[in-house]
Design goal:
The protein is an alpha+beta fold and 297 residues long. Helix content is 48%, strand content 21%. It has two domains: 7-145; 150-295, Cathepsin D, subunit A, domain 1 (Beta Barrel). It contains nine helices and ten strands. Strands 4-5-8-3-9-2-1-6-7-10 form a ten-stranded mixed β-sheet. Strand 4 (224-231) and strand 5 form a beta hairpin. Helix 2 runs antiparallel to helix 3 (67-85) and helix 3 packs across helix 4. The N and C termini lie far apart (71 Å).
Length: 297
């Protein structure tokens, strides 16, 4: 018995399977808040595609596979894919999400196939289902969109030293320094350690007077300011602020100087995944038009 294989259709099916597995692994990791290995999603999806290819060749070639073998392999293969894509310790957190998404995607694909719709919808339907579930259930798509496109590159300059960082445009950051009325750009404290001497940073962390060279201490004392604030889950607090020499926005190969701002030092991490290290209010970006520009250093 001869079997006719349409190569173009086979390639299309493999490509669709690869991207479906890739999306399922990505969404499973995002939902479980686990970070994939570098290139891990690609490897995991490639393994899933090879399994799918072997399944097609065996079934279309007239081989009859025992039902128990199909069930066992269908349960084990996602586990191997997750192990390739993520660290071993993440298996327990990510695998249930992958099972759930794969079950739903497979059900959608089977349903579309039974409806005798066009082949392209059978191939694309599971992808759309995974994306919709990820967005409706956990809001992953617009969250990742905002984190990717709602960011901006900044340069902070103090005493001739510069530090580049990424800031998230956050309309919820309404913090201002009460005396000057200047807006506060909240920055992770650890990022500023390249600009602030260790002994000064230690004094800031311990809230003790700055010692050492009197001239240097006086200069840093003039830069420091205490900023009272209120936040959700915390009635009130005080944030240590730092007056920089300049804060520049990187845009189209130039550095556009922002109006006077205060750097608020945040002790914790602002982004769990490290995508950004600062929070900036959009009003500061709107106010920079017509400001000083210079070539990037």
């Amino acid at each position: 018995m001869s079997v006719v294989v349409y190569v173009d259709l086979l390639i299309a099916c493999l490509a669709a399977e690869f991207w479906r597995d890739y999306l399922i692994l990505w969404a499973g990791g995002e939902i479980a808040n686990r970070e994939a290995r570098r290139g891990g999603l690609f490897l995991g999806a490639a393994l899933g595609s090879l399994y799918y290819l072997a399944f097609l060749l065996l079934t279309k070639g007239g081989f009859s596979l025992p039902p128990w073998l199909l069930i066992v392999s269908s349960l084990l293969m996602p586990a191997f894919m997750v192990l390739l894509a993520f660290n071993k310790r993440d298996l327990k957190a990510v695998l249930p999400m992958v099972y759930l998404l794969a079950l739903i995607a497979g059900g959608i694909g089977y349903w579309l196939q039974s409806m005798n719709v066009a082949r392209v919808w059978v191939l694309l339907g599971p992808h759309v289902a995974v994306l919709l579930i990820a967005e409706i259930g956990w809001g992953l798509l617009h969250e990742r969109f905002w984190e990717s496109f709602g960011q901006i590159a900044l340069v902070v300059e103090i005493n001739g030293q510069k530090q580049a960082l990424r800031a998230l445009i956050d309309s919820g950051n309404e913090l201002v320094e009460p005396v000057s009325g200047k807006r506060v750009v909240i920055v992770e404290k650890d990022v500023m350690k390249n600009l602030v001497p260790a002994e000064i940073m230690q004094s800031i962390e311990q809230m003790t007077p700055i010692g050492g060279d009197p001239d240097s201490a006086e200069g840093w004392n003039k830069r420091l300011v205490l900023i009272p604030f209120k936040s959700v889950g915390r009635d009130s607090g005080v944030l240590v602020g730092l007056r920089p020499d300049s804060v520049y926005l990187k845009h189209k190969g130039k550095q556009v100087r922002l109006p006077g701002v205060i750097i608020g030092l945040e002790t914790g991490s602002l982004s769990q995944r490290g995508e950004y290290q600062a929070l900036i209010h959009p009003a500061l970006l709107l106010a920079n038009s017509g400001g000083e520009q210079r070539e990037m250093a």
